[in-house]
Amino acid sequence: MTDSTLLHASVSHLRQLLKDRAVSSEELTEACLKQINATNEALNAIITVCPEQALESARAADSQLAKGESKSLTGIPLLHKDIFCTRGVRTTCGSRMLEQFVPAYDATVVSKMKAEGVVMLGKCNMDEFAMGSSNETSFFGTVKNPWDLSCVPGGSSGGSAAALATGMAPLVTGTDTGGSIRQPASLCGVTGLKPTYGRVSRLGIIAFASSLDQAGPMARTAEDCALALTAMAGMDDGDSTSANLPVPDFHGALNPNLQGLRIGLPREYFNDDLNADVRARVMAALSELEKAGASLIDIDLPHSHYAIATYYVIAPAEASANLARYDGVRFGYRCEQPSDLEDLYLRSRSEGFGEEVQRRILVGTYALSAGFYDAYFNKAQQVRRVITEDFRRAFEQVDVIAGPSAPGVAFPFGAKQQDPIAMYMEDIYTLAVNLAGLPGLSTPAGLINGMPVGLQLIGKPFDEQTILNAAHRLQIDTDWHTARPNLEAITS
Amino acid sequence: MSVSPQDVEKVALLARLTISESDLPEVTERFARVLGLVDELNTIDTQDVVPMSNPHDMEQRLRPDAVTRSNEREALMASAPVQEQGYFLVPKVID
Asked: Right CATH number for A3-258 from 3.30.470.30, 3.90.1300.10, 3.90.1150.10, 3.40.50.300?
């Protein structure tokens, strides 16, 4: 088997190959490490690679496979976003603040996936503290989009998406606070799933906005996302917001029969502001679902317009509280020669955090400060309920809501960096899903001038299964998810 | 709502951040733009709407107050930027 076939195979296919002993986990891991070596210099998708540790886990996986004792992901190589704490492996969150931080424990997602037998290859680049939609805010430099090196990969899980699209690993993790899995999945042409808030434990995920943050998988197929979600999900005593619900076997329950499925198309998403090419790609994907037995129904989400304003109060407010812990004393960056304690705090934070992170801390602190709390934070939490109610009402009529994942394809570096608002608009179709705590998925829907576009499917709370089923059916009937960037230009 | 450079400096101090004199005009301008965006919230009537802090209105779950992990003092202290004899070191705070 050639390396190229292996590197672009789905997790489901690789599982079979490993089980049949047609390939060993060690061979597969070596192929991935070789691909990382050959392409990461051009892409900058990975911050830390752990070759010895990975090969050791791969050999352990091989001996389990030989004994027929394998778990759901035994021997599958994987890259974690560098926001997940990994015991003994540096975890930077894309920030100078955590450049030297080595956690003393594994995030629950990391330990659960380890227990299922994954082989961790390393940690992916990301926007600093997950604040960004282009990967341009990372202290470790921007990630390049493998489809066009002059363009952004999306963010904040842009390193994960780019690594996956390049064949560095068949499975990657991301987190999504306002679109950070779905938007880079769309821009890099992969499948990405943000589960329902509470489905996956947040323990050990470096906190950004605690009422919005959720971890999820990115993979080549919806089927692989289903496998990975079952491995990641579940109640955790260490996260009091994780849902006390049984975790279904999402993979075993995959059902491509869409007969009778009702898909809602919000008029507010498919309005005149929607880019015509994106509309055409998204509608082509939806008509495939219609052919498969689903019906398309126009619906209203009347307060969609307010999602951005609501998000940009709540997320910075929660971030300002979460990031207060970085004081230059217990862990993280510390300035040189502080004159007193106040100077230590001020300079450690101003030198350790990047511009976008500081901007969000300022906005959040303002929104929570005396005299402005009611006008901003309380008001935003009220509008959050109004937006969530829109979804609840819509789901009385439909089973799934569909729209674009992002307003366009990947854009050139620097195009939106000078204007925070232009950058925030990248997440116009994804933010409301986090505010309402719903599951959302992006699946490839073809190309515009050679660059990928994503279809977003939004589900009812804790109904990841239905959106996975719809994406799975789309991937049976079409081949958009198999499109790959041309890697000749980036392989060294 | 308009914001002055002095407002931004005050908020920055509350957040324990410093902004250099030369950056202040630009930081203020961008800060004001974000606030302009969120001012849109005032155009929607939310009287009697209960603020939402958890998307599923979940209650905070409590667990028994029991020791679940062993103390890992050394592993936890290892990430401290400066330490001495097992303590975090800070500049002198009392004369």
From this structure: 3.90.1300.10
